[in-house]
Amino acid sequence: MKNISILSASVRNGRNSHRVALYFKNYLEENQLANVKIIDLKEYNFPIFEERLRFISNPTEAMLSFADEVTKSDGIILVTPEYNGGYPASLKNAIDLLYAEWKRKPIAIATVSAGAFAGTQVITSIQFSLWKIGALTVPAMFPVATVEKTFDENGKPNDEEATNKRASSFVNELIWWIEAKQKMDT
């Protein structure tokens, strides 16, 4: 079974994007599609980026744990809110900390907002950052508009049937890229 991590990018108090991370964890486990782990940036409390992990003489246990989780993942669902047209500094900080760990890592991006645009304004900037470090961003998106109205705090969607249909397409695309990468690595 594949190992898929869900990277919950927001560290904000009262964050709503984490609801989508919880949804994907439940969806993947209930459908027995993967072994799932949430990598919650709020739990890591990283210092502001000073240097890539490989150049830090005394990295924290959190930094090493984060790098290990990314490395062990066959693929990642990145759940990011949109803040003023961009993605949060916590995510940029975490992306920049690593380098080789992201190389050719299949990543599916779920964008989230409180407004009607579903975080779609953030997609270009996050894809560019991931592309620059060699990650494989899959050509599927999972935009979520008005998240506080469409998902409860436990990740349960209001319209489960429609949400699961969208998730199936999104997750299947990620799994295809994971399997393609695994074939190329052999």
From TrEMBL:
Recorded GO cellular component terms are:
cytosol
According to its UniProt record, what is one Pfam family this protein matches?
Answer: FMN_red
Q: For this protein, what is any one GO molecular function term? A: oxidoreductase activity
SUPFAM superfamilies listed in its UniProt record: Flavoproteins (SSF52218)
Domain NADPH-dependent FMN reductase-like, which positions?
4-144
**Name of the protein in question:** NAD(P)H-dependent oxidoreductase
